[in-house]
Model the fold of this input.
Amino acid sequence: MKKLYLGSDKRLCGVCDGVARFINLDPVLIRTVVICIALMTAVFPVLLIYIIAALVLPKAPEGYTEVDGAYKKIMKSEDKRVCGVCSGIAEYFNIDSTIVRLIFVLLTLWIGGGIICYIVCALMFPAYDPLENKQV
Done:
């Protein structure tokens, strides 16, 4: 049975890294989602949930090994319209980039969060690296 632990890559407390490894996604993607949710809703509740998770989640036991790099890494795409964010997300989830662009437009029109999310993604996602093995 999989267990949820604090991650070893402790940018802050290791919560996002632990959650990302539990569901086998890139920690950068989880951090970006948490930041976007915090900026689009309210920072205090998200911060409170993060602090509670940091206090409640256990540290990994002695001898516990995580499989580093077992997940596909998210990055900006070389197929850019603006910054390559939508194409990078589309490549990560193996879907058409038009769908991702439409989601950003709908988020912008609906709650105004699409622009905020796009800027956060552009700042958080690493640049396209042709030497990076993206198929894991």
